[in-house]
């Protein structure tokens, strides 16, 4: 029994440009911190999870999200409801690698050029998927900060991120100067 529903968004206007819209699938600790890091870059963040998190690691995150959708990110209709066709990237960061891979394959079918950032420790599979899907990157969260996941979603368009000395991005990571 699945019930997909949408919580009210901050804006109900027309779809923003693709370069400003990001989708985060999975709102566990990693997903919450990735969403917060993306918001620090001033982009729109839409999140999908099968249930509303009971433990908000970032207390006001729900209000920071531009849209929150209750649903299964492996289902085409849920990704379409999130307007994946208008997104620059999707982060598949649930705690289940199989769900992340299945959702990435569905996302690629719906949007052939979207950047896929996937939480996965299966190195051989990740390399195969990168070769066959293109514009795909996979990380093991124990090896990288949440900011690295967010920066991977921003891709080659990330020019610079400057913060006052001693400041950190969401997740506690120091800012990254440039990616070209």
What order do the helices and strands come in, and which of them pair?
Elements: E1 5-7, E2 21-25, H1 29-40, E3 44-49, H2 61-64, E4 67-70, H3 76-81, E5 89-92, H4 97-110, E6 115-119, H5 123-133, E7 136-139, H6 146-154
Helix pairs in contact: 1-6
What report would you give on this structure?
The model is unreliable at 1-18, 158-167 and 173-180 (pLDDT under 50). Helix 5 links the parallel strand 6 (115-119) and strand 7. This protein has a single domain (16-157), classed as Rossmann fold. Helix 1 (29-40) crosses helix 6 (146-154). It has helices at 29-40, 61-64, 76-81, 97-110, 123-133, 146-154; strands spanning 5-7, 21-25, 44-49, 67-70, 89-92, 115-119, 136-139. With 180 residues, the chain is of the alpha/beta class. The protein has a seven-stranded mixed beta sheet with strand order 1-4-3-2-5-6-7, sandwiched between helices. Helix content is 31%, strand content 17%.
